[in-house]
């Protein structure tokens, strides 16, 4: 299974390692030995433990904080949201598109790995990883809880050990969520990352695919195609990441969903992606034992012959899901003192001890949908893991 994780997206192992921070547990690096021997990784690219270049430091959280020798470029809101200069909706042109009305302007930060500006890679192009709640991904001090994912630190550690499926880390596009309320009592973030049928979540996906992605590809040396373009998010951000794959499969080829908050419309959209209306009706009427049996049979026969799955289908995508919460005899502690030792004034970080457990039924439903539809995906369960940035 770990071999699959190593090859997930283009920096797959970082998602397992980032999420392993949930319990502060160490990751046994010997687990990756099987991945090194994988047929999908050329012999010359596998790290040699006997080489003097081999880094034998423990590959375990906490990972380094900050940019880790890379460069952070700020894309100003005026370039991403032309015609808008204020976050207050009262100053937004009411006759502009729905996307412009409901998505307040914001700066976006892009992390470029140190290889991007090195002479060795001056002619190389880099994969792209879009990160929802990007303000929480890199710097502890910038995170709203005082602890970040340290995603950049995880990518850097993996790259140092030649454990990524690519020669270099991806560039990471950190998109902050909307702040405040869209309407009184209605969170902007909950709207932007909301259910599949929510018009604001669609506007967010549209912005990512039709505005931000072209902006990135026109200004940075990046690889083209969904196999080089993925997204990652936590909680509702995990749902938003999967929605990008569903809505724009020709652009996005992978989604990492950490403690995802899947809602009914998104699960229904995944079902619709995998089955025709006739098969859905047959299942509802009780005349079919397996919702997607016919399509699984046809797709499997094609894949057995070495053919690729339909690029529109979820079967052709790389999907990772994890969560913590109660499991068997392990319970999420009501209080974890480490949640309150932070590098800024957000010492109130509660840890959301109940949330991963309450999200489990919808995660199980989404995984059942994937299993029924023949969608290969990776799922990791971290018993006792909390629902916060320090855990992710």
What can you tell me about this protein's structure?
With 392 residues, this protein is α/β, with parallel strands linked by helices. The protein has 13 helices and ten strands. The strands form two sheets. It has an eight-stranded mixed beta sheet, sandwiched between helices. It has a two-stranded antiparallel sheet with strand order 5-6. β3, α6 and β4 (171-175) form a beta-alpha-beta unit. The chain is globular. The chain starts with a helix and ends in an 11-residue tail after the last strand.
**Beta-strand segment tally:** 10
| Morphology call | globular
Order of helices and strands: HHHEHHEEHEEEHHEHEHHHEHE
The major pleated sheet works out as: 8 strands, mixed
- Classify the helix fraction into a percent range: 25-40%
Supply the key terms.
alpha/beta; two-stranded antiparallel ribbon; 13 helices; 10 strands; 32% helix; disordered N terminus
Topology:
Layout: H1 2-6, H2 13-20, H3 33-36, E1 71-75, H4 77-80, H5 98-102, E2 108-112, E3 128-132, H6 151-160, E4 171-175, E5 181-183, E6 186-187, H7 188-192, H8 199-219, E7 229-234, H9 236-247, E8 254-258, H10 264-274, H11 277-284, H12 293-304, E9 318-323, H13 355-373, E10 377-381
Parallel strand pairs: 3-4, 3-7, 7-8, 8-9, 9-10
Antiparallel strand pairs: 1-2, 2-4, 5-6
Helix pairs in contact: 2-6, 8-9, 9-10, 10-13
Short summary:
With 392 residues, the protein is of the alpha/beta class.
């Amino acid at each position: 299974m770990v071999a699959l994780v190593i090859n997930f997206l283009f920096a797959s192992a970082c998602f397992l390692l980032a999420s392993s921070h949930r319990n502060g547990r160490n990751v046994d690096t010997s687990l990756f030995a099987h991945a090194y021997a994988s047929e999908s990784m050329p012999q010359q690219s596998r790290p040699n433990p006997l080489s003097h270049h081999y880094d034998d430091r423990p590959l375990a959280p906490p990972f380094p904080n900050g940019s880790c020798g890379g460069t952070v470029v700020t894309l100003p809101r005026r370039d991403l949201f032309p015609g808008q200069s204020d976050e207050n909706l009262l100053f937004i042109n009411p006759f502009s598109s729905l996307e412009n009305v409901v998505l307040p302007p914001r700066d976006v930060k892009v992390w470029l790995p140190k290889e991007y500006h090195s002479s060795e890679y001056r002619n190389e192009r880099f994969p792209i990883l879009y990160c929802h709640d990007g303000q929480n991904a890199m710097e502890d001090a910038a995170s709203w809880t005082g602890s970040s994912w340290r995603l950049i630190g995880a990518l850097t550690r993996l790259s140092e050990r030649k454990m990524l499926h690519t020669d270099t880390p991806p560039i990471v596009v950190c998109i902050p969520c909307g702040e405040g309320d869209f309407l009184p009592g209605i969170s902007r973030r909950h709207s932007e990352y909301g259910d599949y049928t929510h018009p604001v979540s669609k506007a967010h996906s549209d912005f990512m695919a039709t505005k931000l992605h072209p902006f990135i590809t026109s200004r940075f040396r990046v690889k083209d195609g969904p196999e080089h373009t993925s997204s990652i998010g936590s909680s509702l951000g995990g749902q938003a990441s999967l929605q990008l794959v569903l809505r724009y499969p020709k652009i996005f080829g992978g989604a990492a969903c950490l403690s995802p908050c899947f809602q009914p419309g998104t699960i229904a959209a995944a079902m619709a992606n995998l089955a025709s209306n006739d098969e859905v009706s047959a299942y509802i009427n009780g005349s079919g034992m397996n919702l997607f049996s016919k399509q699984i049979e046809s797709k499997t026969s094609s894949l057995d012959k070495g053919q690729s799955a339909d690029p529109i289908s979820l079967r052709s995508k790389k999907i990772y899901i994890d969560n913590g919460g109660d499991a068997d005899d392990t319970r999420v502690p009501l209080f974890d003192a480490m949640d309150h030792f932070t590098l800024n004034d957000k010492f109130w970080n509660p840890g959301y001890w109940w949330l991963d457990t309450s999200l489990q039924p919808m995660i199980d439903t989404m995984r059942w949908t994937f299993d029924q539809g023949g969608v290969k995906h990776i799922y990791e369960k971290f018993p006792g893991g909390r629902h916060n940035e320090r855990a992710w």
